[in-house]
Design goal:
Elements (H helix, E strand, L loop, with lengths): L1 H19 L6 E3 L2 E5 L4 E12 L2 E11 L4 E11 L2 E13 L2 E14 L2 E11 L2 E11 L3 E11 L4 E5 L1 E5 L8 E3 L3 E4 L3
Length: about 190
């Protein structure tokens, strides 16, 4: 039985790699992996772990659509380098030799020493964008707004409709700035 399981994991990993064509090989582990012949979708369920480069994706279920080079991860976590977060759905899309990440209902996010949450997150070309009920901050201060863009190389944060609050006195001090605000987090 273990031989069959190992063979299936190897075969699925090989199949996923030929469709995605990443420069490095992702590793896929799950309790169950199968092909949905009706849709042509590869499905991994139960304790799904996908590692790729410096990143690890864990979740309950993953679906890979080979025709569009899209991988969906449900009720999952992305972690690696300077960023990690939980999300109801994480989508990885391969286009123009780049991998773009979209995530929905993001919570418990961490970027370096900052925490964040939002309704939608996109990660492309070293820019993370937090959209809808977005918040980012540290243990002493927090910013909330409609949208934040974080340059992952420079640490620069830009936001729209930003409210800034000192966490210790947030009930006393809330400033509302409806214009775009730029904040450099420093390195």
């Amino acid at each position: 039985m273990n031989f069959i399981r190992i063979f299936l994991v190897f075969f699925v990993t090989l199949f996923l790699l030929t469709g995605i064509s990443f420069a490095e090989t992702p590793n896929v582990k799950a309790d169950q992996v199968y092909l949905d012949f009706g849709s042509g979708t590869w499905v991994a369920e139960g304790n799904v772990v996908i590692t790729y480069k410096d990143y690890e994706f864990t979740g309950e279920k993953a679906e890979y659509y080979p025709n569009t080079s899209v991988l969906d991860l449900f009720n999952g976590k992305l972690s690696g380098k300077d960023v990690s977060f939980l999300a109801k759905k994480i989508i990885l899309k391969k286009s123009d030799n780049k991998t773009n990440v979209d995530a929905f209902n993001v919570k418990d996010g961490v970027y370096k020493e900052y925490s964040f949450s939002c309704n939608e997150l996109t990660l492309s070309d070293d820019i993370a964008t937090l959209i809808g009920n977005a918040s980012i901050g540290s243990s002493s201060s927090r910013m909330t707004g409609d949208k934040f863009s974080i340059n992952l190389k420079t640490g620069k944060i830009e936001g729209t409709n930003v409210k800034s609050a000192n966490v210790e006195t947030s009930s006393k001090k809330d400033t509302n700035n409806s214009s775009e605000t730029n904040t450099n987090t420093g390195q």
